[in-house]
Structure formats: structure tokens, C-alpha cells
Please model this.
Amino acid sequence: MKILGIETSCDETGAAVVEDGRRILSNVVASQVRVHARYGGIVPEVASRHHLEALVPVVEAALVEARCRWSDLDAVAVTYGPGLSGSLLVGVNLAKALAFAHSLPLVGIHHLEAHNYANWLEDGDSPPRGFPALALIVSGAHTDLVLMEEHGRYRRLGRTRDDAAGEAFDKVGRYLGLGYPGGPAIERAAATSGRPSVRLPRAWLGGAHDFSFSGLKTAVLRLSRQEGGRALPVAEVAAAFQEAVVDVLVSKTVRAARREGVSQILLSGGVAANTALREALVRRSPVAVSVPPPALCTDNGAMVAGCAHFRLQRGPASGLDLDVFANLPIA
Model:
């Protein structure tokens, strides 16, 4: 089964063809990072306009790279939420038109669920081992800890109460003058520092599985300005911040894995590309950890197409009345 996946939930325009839920035949992404860097963050209206310009060429490129004709495809899958409404509409409307024009089933896919399925793609680690699995989804807009009981069955154990981890990275990157996006910039800066001499606060929230990073951001802002009458080096502040975020994410995930008795942990989302997070989770986890390669952590069409394969095995496709939902919950 070959599925075309379309992803436009935020600022990446992605299209890919995946066979049987695992084999990537093509994966084309048009990034808007440079466009939004001048603003220090994503501007929704600008993002949707760029999707309008890029999406058709990206879909065409994905078909060419996969050496597929429309008659070779079995379905069209598209992210319908959560995300930026304008961006989602661009992808969903094109997917509807393509499905109708070529008499193909249309499959609406949840963006966070798709991130999980990046772990099933052949370019990732060995396929996930079974259920129940614990999914840690960390991105610019989401930080969720979800119990995956089986394909399509989820129970959310925790979520961020304020900023997502990726959003915190971006804001701290601006505080430190490191630019946008903040995640890669902070990781690069932290790599030039030794073990930080200061320890930033962790929000443990009384043992809950939820996350909070707003207090950590405030602490970084104060620390970057002055500490004991002297300014600390940017690299050391970046290292202290990254250490705090990784410690909380990993500690809460490991604790939930033990409590729920899961067989594996699935790490996904843009922040999953962070080397310190990946290494710490693998090192401290009591069970197997599946992590996609960095290129599949950020938004892409391959994860959407891969997820759609398993969705079609469970039930019927979506209708052409599929709508977008900016705040669509995963559970």
C-alpha cells in the first residue's frame, strides 16, 4: 500500500510517499525557518501564505522522487489538527481536491499521533516492540506524555501547563541572543561549555506527570543578566537551561514508564532531535527506547503517510467534509 502524506500544521510544508507504513519512497520538506527567523518566531499568516506557494511543488516533487503516478497510490493522508488553522486549511483543502480528483480515499491524521509513527519508519531505529508504549512528544507547541495502549488507543498522562519545551527553547534562545530556532542554537552553545556551575530550578509539580517551563524561563532571564554581580557566559547559561529541561523530561518519563509497566518508550517531535535528551533517555530508561533520526523528528509528510497506513487497517477513511481543528486533543 502506497500513501501520499501531506503535512502543513505549522511552518514546514511536507509531502511524502510511504509504502506499507514503513518504507519511505520520498520525503520532501520546504522549510520556512529563514522566513520566520527575522521575527524571532512563527507568524501564522506568513506561514499559511508560504504553504500556498510551496505545497503543490512539494507534492509534485514527492511523486517524482518516489517514481509514482497517481494510479500507483492507494490513499491521500493529511494532518487536520492540531496546529495553526490557516496552515492546516491549506493542506487539508489540497488533500481533499487530490483525493476527489483521483478517486482516492482521504485519511485525516492527528499531528501528534503522526509524530509517534516516525518511530515506525525504516529510517528510524528497529520497529517499536509492542504495547503498551509510552510516548513522549516534545515540540515547539506540544509537550505531552501519552500512554499508547495499541494502535489508535491513547491515554494522556501529562502535558505542559504553560510553555511547551520547544517554545521554551525558542524564547530562551532569544533571551541569550542566540537567534531562532532556539533549540539547535542552545544545543550548539551548550556543547562549547563544560558542566554548568549553576543549577537552574526544576518544576516537579508534586509528582504529577505534567510539565511546566515558565519558571525556568524566568530564572534563565535573571541569570543571563547577572549572577553575583557578574554576567555568566552565554554558553554556560545555555548548558544549565538544557540540563534542566532534559532532567525534567527524562525523569518524568522514566517514572511514568515504571508506573505504567510499559514495554517501550517512543520519543518524537522536534525537540527529540536534541542529542542530550536522546542520550539521557536511552541511558536512564528501564525499557527499550525508540528514537527517530533527527530528520524525522521535525514535521514531515512521511510520518503522516506512515500513520495513515495503520489508521486504514483499523477502519474507514475520512469523508470529504473533513475539517481542521487547531486544538485537537490526542486523548
About this structure: The first strand starts at residue 2 and ends at 7. The two ends are 28 Å apart (CA to CA). The mean pLDDT is 94.
